[in-house]
Amino acid sequence: MKRLIIRKKSRKNFLTYGIVVAAYVALMAVMAAGAMPSAIQGLLVPMCAYIIAAVSLNLTVGVLGELSLGHAGFMSVGAFTGCTAAMALANSGMPSWGRMAAAVVVGSLLAAAAGALVGVPVLRLQGDYLAIVTLAFGEIIKTVVTNLYIGIDPQGLHFGFLKPDIGLGKGGKMIVNGPNGISGIEKISTLTAGFLIILLCLVVIFNLVDSRSGRAIMALRDNRIAAESVGINATKYKLMAFVLSAAMAGAAGALYALSQNTVTASKFDFNTSILILVFVVLGGLGNMLGSIVAATVLYILPETWLRQFSDYRMLIYAVVLIGMMLVTNSQKVRTLLGKLLPQKKTKEKEGQGDA
Amino acid sequence: MPELKFEKGKMVPVPSHSIIPERDLGHAPVLECSHLGVDFGGLRAVNDFNFTIGRTEIAGLIGPNGAGKTTVFNLLTKVYTPTRGTILLNGMDTHGKTTVQINKMGIARTFQNIRLFSNLSVEDNVKIGLHNQKKYSALEGILRLPSYWKKEKEAHERAMELLSIFNMEYMANWRAGNLPYGAQRRLEIVRALATDPCLLLLDEPAAGMNPAETAELMENIVKIRDKFQIAVLLIEHDMKLVMGICEGICVLNFGEVIAKGTAEDIRSNPTVVEAYLGKKGAQAC
Ligand SMILES: Nc1ncnc2c1ncn2[C@@H]1O[C@H](COP(=O)(O)OP(=O)(O)O)[C@@H](O)[C@H]1O
Ligand SMILES: [Mg+2]
């Protein structure tokens, strides 16, 4: 049975903010003490990027109720445009955090534009067309970036498609090099930046959801016909949620790219889109904290603890997936967990909720 | 018909015999349909539907199952595009308008198969109805500007006020999908009223309600009409309700209007008795 009473969302929102801030403080403390294993240290910024990607996809899937199978495509747009911007600014004398911020802004703006490009024709239609079109979008972006050449020389940026010869002048430098992607990236994204972007995304999503526009978006999810019958413009609000989600994925992509030596188009393929979707589904639709936890656990585990199982790694990973699915979606397991937790606390909470 | 009680007692109950209530004389009708019709493939679901509703009239649309009553509502709200005919709302042609525009022009409705935003709270359902009444932009909401707090407060107060019509304020935080059936129907009415309509369409509002609930609903429909000064068009199978509060009744059968008039006219109309009420039903009325 579902909950009869819907409690004020703000408490859960503050819990989410609190956990994110606490995790940041804890990680910084461990790093300051020099106790962080180097294998994990390098995974932290990408982990933030995956958390942002998961939270943003949850806006589309959980809040808007539309299926997107090409979320990595928007990350790709953000990664390549953002990284290009950061590299173009390399000699501008900007501090590294400024270049990173510029990369994130450029990446999210262009990903938002890509989101609008996909969303405007598709979100007008009723039905599950978005899944098909975003699936195609992810593949198209991968192919486009694989054949894209961008370089910079004193005259400015040069672009080329399919052919590597883009007429770079003296002192010119390739940035995006077709199938080889971008290499020699200066790793300027930081854990602090990652957590700030996570917090920013959470604030935007939580404040949106608890506002007139967010309610309109959820109304469309629950019942489109009824939503239109009370005067809600379906296309406008679907587009709003979808473009915002794409922009956040773009920011995630830029953050990710600037934490790697090399990025290639194939990094953001269908598998990555599905991986992010798995984070969202296992964390619970519409549950941002769930997405954060799922993304953290499922990103860090295969890279670290599961390494010891070598060949059996993916087998164990599958078991973990099934286990998480049971925990998050089965009422029996939840009641069981509820019984294991101290009774007093739950009662207290309920009392507050009724008041 | 049970005696109608009015909370504020400012309105005089309208005698249920006149098609157009006295105070409506001199006003343009709120809705005028002429030769309205729609085909689904070869099926003429509605044909040559002519009907007029006065500004504060309670009108009934009755007929056997599959007669095309819900289809008429879907035509009025542009869920379906009419194949033939015109719909004038407050004298304005609604040709080419969308469902959203129709709601903004003043028609609000409920659904035969309840369509609530079932994962959201009761209060949020009403606030969604207030979407075009308490407006502020998404950016104002995300940035929590003063306009956000002001409009949200107004929306909350208005939602509570509307819920109080059915004494449902205490359910404000309940999940809409978990409400008892009758309360879900009432919430749909509240949500429709939140959009500030001039014409309220109710599709089988008493379906699934017990006699006590139905009697209360009858009172409330009249109360809503009096309080908001709006027209109500309702589809209903409960003859007690229809005959009790509808000032004008239209009977549909196989998509065609077979009778129009007051409760008295309909009750004594032999075509209606044959097509719809049946001999026993006619005696019961
Ligand atoms: N979208 C549709 N497509 C095809 N036939 C429809 C559609 N909607 C309604 N109908 C048909 O129109 C007729 C009237 O249906 P409806 O208006 O729902 O009847 P009711 O008077 O019981 O509300 C029925 O025969 C129904 O099958
Ligand atoms: Mg019907």
Textual characterization of the structure:
The complex is a heterodimer of chains A (355) and B (285). The C terminus of chain A is likely disordered. Chain A has one domain. In chain A, strand 1 and strand 2 form a beta hairpin. A 3-stranded antiparallel beta sheet of chain A has the order 2-1-3. In chain A, 68% of the residues lie in helices and 5% in strands. Chain A contains 15 helices and 3 strands. By secondary structure, chain A is mainly alpha-helical. The two termini of chain A are 22 Å apart. Chain B is α/β, with parallel strands linked by helices. Chain B folds into 2 domains: 191 residues, 3-Layer(aba) Sandwich (Rossmann fold), CATH 3.40.50; 62 residues. Helix content of chain B is 37%, strand content 21%. Chain B contains 10 helices and 10 strands. In chain B, helix 7 links the parallel strand 7 and strand 8. Chain B starts with 30 loop residues before the first strand and ends with a helix. The N terminus of chain B is likely disordered. Chains A and B meet through helix 7, helix 8 and helix 9 of A and helix 2, helix 3, helix 4, helix 5 and helix 6 of B. The structure holds adenosine-5'-diphosphate and magnesium ion.
